[in-house]
Amino acid sequence: AKDLNAIGYEYYKKKEYEKAGDLFLCATKKDDNLAVAHYNRACVLAVTYDKKIPIAEEKKLLSVIGKHAMKAVKINKSYLASIKKDTDFDKIRYRYYYEKMIKKIEKYVTEKSTNKILSKLYGKWQCDENYNKCQIASIHILKNKKIIIDARNVKIYLFPPKILTAKHEVVVKD
After folding, report:
1. Is the peptide bond prior to 54 cis by the omega test (within 30 degrees of 0)?
2. 152: left (phi over 0), alpha (psi -120 to 50) or beta
3. What is the residue-wise DSSP string for 98-129?
4. Contact 45, 35 (CB under 8 A)
5. 130 has a pLDDT exceeding 50
6. Residue 172 — very low, low, confident or very high, per pLDDT cuts 50/70/90?
């Protein structure tokens, strides 16, 4: 899979996008956990995007771009920053579906980080009332091992019982 991705990248550099895209797709099928292949597949599809295509095809294409971008981020969340900056995405950057894709990926990254951190700190936890997923705005881990959680006015119930409200500091003990 890595070899297929590397060969695809050589074609990509030569602007032979169709061959590159096919090789990136083969690499993702051979190893679905190869983040760089998913990222490269999303890039090549974005670079070749033509806004003159019919809306139904555009939706389908942007959905495939989103699928590969999300998979890359699920495997390695550092790809989110790349997706936001990479000029390969310039043709689709101001399309509605690009913005929707970015929001979906950001939500995934935030929820995963939140769940991971709170589970590590407290084991079980849940949100107040009707929230399916806790909408935590940010978690800051400071050098002195203090954690500041901004929970956007959501109460988080932690077990053993401890209640965090809108902004709360937690000290992590070794």
Report:
1. no
2. left
3. HHHHHHHHHHHHHHHHHHHHHHHHHSSEEEST
4. no
5. no
6. very low
